[in-house]
Amino acid sequence: MSTDKERASREKISQLDRKLKVLSSKISELSQDSKEHGLVLNAFEKVDPERRCFRVIGGVMVERTVKTVKPALEKEKAALDSAISELEKQYESIEEELKTLIENLSKDSNMGIPSSASASSSSSSEVKA
């Protein structure tokens, strides 16, 4: 039988595992947005600054020029990259906490490590890719 401490540890491991999955998903989403911003900015390098372009703002498509849109896209891309960096730090921190909990649980009991916890520990390289 598992003790209350083991049960609490397993619940914490499960909770941290869920957090890692949420962070991983958000990092992937923001990375995709950042890549798309980069593609648009690269395309703008070859275009006349006075050329018209269209941008969706708050669900409404508006007409602007490249020279007015480019600075906003650069700022948004920088913000996305910063957010990705912060989320990756959070991911690494939670992953370390999870590894520590798993090690402590393994030491305290001779029972196996929960499969979901060990799977998330091995998935850290996927997020950083």
List the helices and strands and how they pair.
Layout: H1 4-44, E1 52-57, E2 60-65, H2 66-108, H3 115-122, H4 124-128
Antiparallel strand pairs: 1-2
Helix pairs in contact: 1-2, 2-3
Radius of gyration over C-alpha positions, nearest whole angstrom = 22 Å
- Number of DSSP helical runs: 4
Strand line-up in the sheet with most strands: 1-2
Low-confidence stretches: 115-126
Helix content: over 70%
Report how far apart the termini are.
40 Å
Helix- and strand-based class? mainly alpha
Shape: rod-shaped
Beta-strand portion reads 5-15%
The number of strands is 2
Can you describe this structure?
The chain has 129 residues and is mainly alpha-helical. It has a domain at 4-47 and 84-128. It is built from four helices and two strands; from the N terminus they run αββααα. It has helices at residues 4-44, 66-108, 115-122, 124-128; strands at 52-57, 60-65. A two-stranded antiparallel sheet has the order 1-2. The protein is rod-shaped and about 70 Å long.
Question: How would you describe this structure in keywords?
Answer:
4 helices, 129 residues, two-stranded antiparallel sheet, mainly alpha, 2 strands, Prefoldin, rod-shaped
Brief synopsis:
It is built from 4 helices and 2 strands. It is mainly alpha-helical. A two-stranded antiparallel ribbon has the order 1-2.
